[in-house]
Amino acid sequence: MRRGLRALLALAALGWLWAMVAVGQLPRQAQFVAFEAAGVMREAPEAVREVRLSQGPRQVTLVRAAPGVARGVWVQALRLWQPLAKPSAPGAHQHGGVVEKALHTALGADNWTHEGTPLPTARGARLSLATKFLHTARPVRVLSAAELVGTSPAEFGLREDSLNVVVTLAGGGGITLQFGGLTPEGSLQYLRLAGSDAVYLMSRFVGEEWAGVWSDWQP
Questions:
Q1: Which end is more exposed in the chain, N or C (fewer Cβ atoms within 10 Å of the end residue's Cβ)?
Q2: What is the C-alpha radius of gyration for the chain, rounded to an integer number of angstroms?
Q3: pLDDT band at residue 15, thresholds of 50, 70 and 90?
């Protein structure tokens, strides 16, 4: 009886899968679900054109090299194609990834310069990853102004000697960040955005990446 029931359920499951394939509605695997960035920077990291890091009196400005005319045409073509790779389309997780990678390469995403001199590959890649984290890493928690009443920025490690990062976008505008200290358990780091009364708790790897970028320029 039980063996017959199991066989019947197995046949029903196979029939359901066949029907889903036939109508093109086979469920996507979890790793293929469309990713939605929710970081403190809404714009795509490829839109970043300049980054200025400072701590105390020291500062360094890094500029992303602009693509040439031919590369610019290729970039526009890729941007037109990118929305067509919808997550619901068959193979979209593959084609979308290919388009994104090609766009990243065409934009010269790692082609950073300092005072006109190209950065070494490793430094450029680290800076690109740091800017990407601003776009993709979701704040673990946001402390509102009401929650911060009676506290001082210094309690969160937000001081004059904290690491500051000014990100400028290609179309103008940008964001200014100040990295604070770690939470008591050490897994999160405090972050403040210019123009906001809130304090963000971010995964510490975000601040560590920016600290690594800054350390590349220390004597």
A1: C
A2: 23
A3: low
Give per-residue pLDDT as tens, 141-191. 999 999 999 999 999 999 999 999 999 999 889 999 999 999 999 999 999
Supply the DSSP symbol for 217: T
Contacts of 155 (CB under 8 A, 6+ apart): none
Give the Cα separation of 157 and 163 in Å (integer): 10
3-state secondary structure of 168: strand
Instruction: Judge if pTM exceeds 0.85.
Output: no
Provide the CATH number for the domain formed by 43-65+112-219 in this structure. 2.60.40
Q: Give the Cα separation of 155 and 162 in Å (integer).
A: 13
Q: Single out the residue of 110, 109, 130, 129 nearest to residue 120, CA to CA.
A: 110
CA 25 to chain centre: 30
Per the listing, tokens 């990291």 go with 45
Work out the average pLDDT over 41-68. Answer: 92
Residue 186 — φ and ψ, nearest 5°? 85, 0
Range in 6-10, 35-39, 157-161, 165-169 the model is least confident about: 6-10
